[in-house]
Specification:
Layout (H helix, E strand, L loop, with lengths): L8 E2 L8 E7 L2 E9 L4 E6 L8 E3 L10 E3 L8 E5 L6 E7 L4 E5 L7 E4 L5 H9 L3
Antiparallel strand pairs: 1-8, 2-3, 3-4, 3-6, 4-5, 7-8, 8-9, 9-10
Bound molecules: zinc ion (2 copies).
């Protein structure tokens, strides 16, 4: 049986929760983000289970489109000055309530994502590896 790790994320700028308890994905609160493509603005919801690529959006996107992501509370742009090592698009970062940062790629269709811990102790990384990260 696959172990599931659900992440509770917040905005790195205003620290408001990005979790939306009213809209569930895979029976868990979804992560709600405002997005903007070249043509449209809308809402993107991500599954909070780490490694699960399920998402919902009201914006028409093509595979390969780079999407700008913004906090729905403070409108802070969530992309950071680092690029995805797989496809070169900007990475987007969220704070994890329990500590650390999760980074995802802003390109639609690229599944690159990883977690960065503030202090990576062997103990912690071992724990997370056991959970399949
Ligand atoms: Zn914010
Ligand atoms: Zn990428």
């Amino acid at each position: 049986m696959k172990k599931e790790v659900s992440l509770s994320l917040k905005c790195p700028n205003c620290c408001e929760s990005l979790m939306d308890e009213k809209h569930l994905i895979e029976d868990k609160p979804s992560i709600k983000i405002n997005i903007e493509t070249e043509h449209e603005r809308g809402v993107l919801r991500l599954c909070c289970l780490y490694g699960d690529g399920s998402k919902w959006t009201d914006v028409a996107m093509n595979d390969g489109d780079i999407v700008d992501m913004f906090c729905p509370h403070c409108n802070h742009e969530l992309s950071i000055k680092e690029n995805c090592e797989v496809c070169g698009a900007p990475l987007v970062a969220f704070f994890i309530k329990a500590g650390g940062t999760v980074r995802i790629c802003s390109r639609n269709g690229c599944t690159n994502h990883h977690i960065v811990f503030k202090e990576v102790s062997e103990e912690t990384s071992k724990l997370y590896y056991e959970y399949g990260f």
